[in-house]
Amino acid sequence: MYLVSRLFAVQDGLATFDQLRRVGVSDSLRRQRLASGEWEHFDRVVVGLAGAPVTWRRHVRAALLSAGDDAAISHATAARLHGFDGFAHEQTVHVTVCGSTHYTPLPGTTFHRSTLLTADGCTEIDGMRVVSKPIALLQIAGTRRRDATRQALDGLLRDGESPEWIRQTVQQWRRPGVKGPAPVLDLLSETERRLPRSWFQRLAKRVVAVTGLQLMDEYPVTDPDTGRLLAELDLAAPELMIGIECQSWKWHSTPSTRAAGALRKRRLRRLGWEIIELWWVDLARPTEVLADVTHAVALRRAVCTGGLRTAR
Fold it and tell me: What is the mean pLDDT of each run of 10 residues along the chain (312 residues)?
């Protein structure tokens, strides 16, 4: 029974009837294990080890096994498996079946059918067939809000995925009635102008934009004496020498990183920069953020008008 145990071990405690037959489990033996309660039915072709943990991942694999060889994990479910930004806690289960194969989905599974999806448009994650990253992205664009697609695309590009690969794949799906390609191509055009370092930075820029302040992403500040790069401000209004730093506990959780951040800020202020720090929690208090930015802008404009600012 080693092969059977191995099969269950690599498939979250699940197997299809056909898979069990291929490792030597007869139909009668399968029925005995089901009758004894050692195994349990998931659907008409999938069984699982009784008592195994009930997890999202197990549900995903059960849905795929149930759908058969012409199916792939898709949409937001594929986004989570691919590690898309913004989908780490996704709980939905989506399966897309190629062609006209009949399929009755497991309860809790959202079923899709596609005549465009082929094996070339899929990859494998932990033994599961999953649509490729560009296809998952365009499926999200067709079913979720624009910000969810933008956040996922930003993450893919920051991770080094080729925008041309995404563009070419998405263009192949441009058909009447297919909603995803147009918004993805539109967002690709936007990100080519400048890709923010993080989703937090993009949201912060959107909040501050209400003030009318023109901000640049990742603005470099150098030491005027040595030419050495002192900082790359997340957002900056260079004419007013206002910088906005999008802070995260991930990068400021140790005494050494906090000390380095404080030293960096002192050097920037000695050069005449006004630095405003924003944390994730601040985005829930936009009125206070805008008040801080408006106050900083008023002070810097007064300095500029008075001729006190030294050009850097």
Answer: 91 96 95 95 92 94 94 97 96 90 84 92 96 97 93 87 91 93 90 62 74 80 83 85 75 64 83 83 76 82 59 40
Q: Which CATH number fits domain 2-53: 1.10.10, 1.20.58, 3.90.1580, 3.40.50?
A: 1.10.10
Sheet holding 122-125, edge to edge: 110-114, 94-98, 71-73, 128-131, 122-125
Q: Are 169 and 134 in contact (CB under 8 A)?
A: yes
* CA–CA distance, 312 with 310 (Å, rounded to integer): 6
CATH of domain 199-305: 3.40.960.10
Note the Cα 226 to chain centre separation in Å: 39
User: What's the rounded Cα separation, in Å, for the pair 113 and 117?
Assistant: 9
Domain boundaries, the chain: 2-53, 57-193, 199-305
Note if the pTM is more than 0.70.
Answer: no
